[in-house]
User: Fold this.
Amino acid sequence: MSSAVPDLHPHMVAVRGALEGAGLVVGDGGAPPPQAIPATGIYVALYFDPGQSLSESLADARTDFVVSFQVTCVGPTATKCLWAAQRTRLALHGRLTVDGRAPWRPEELGGPPVQRDDDVSPPLFYLPVQYRLMSTS
Assistant:
């Protein structure tokens, strides 16, 4: 059994890798750079919380880890935004590979309906979807 403190970074790498592996362009904490946004105008932005190490037993061995994250799906139309959300769901449906950890499958926690952002020109549609990922050593 490992006594190492759980690390957020490999979880972030696993999520980003799954999304990119599904053909999505991913921004870290916001939109990707303008030159990276594809002609379709579809991308996702990842936002992570710092995660939390949890006790696995009364002995206080803190080897379990839980992190919540949001994938904000963006597109030029509501339909394309929903396509990005479905592609995200497919990418995160299976068990991820997290270096040095044994993860559960990501849990989808949902989000609000698609919203239109009229503060940008042309307007974009976005949908923030929340997920939770747990792992143990």
Strands lie at 26-28, 43-48, 52-54, 64-75, 102-103, 107-110, 115-117, 124-136. The mean pLDDT is 93. The chain has two helices and eight strands.
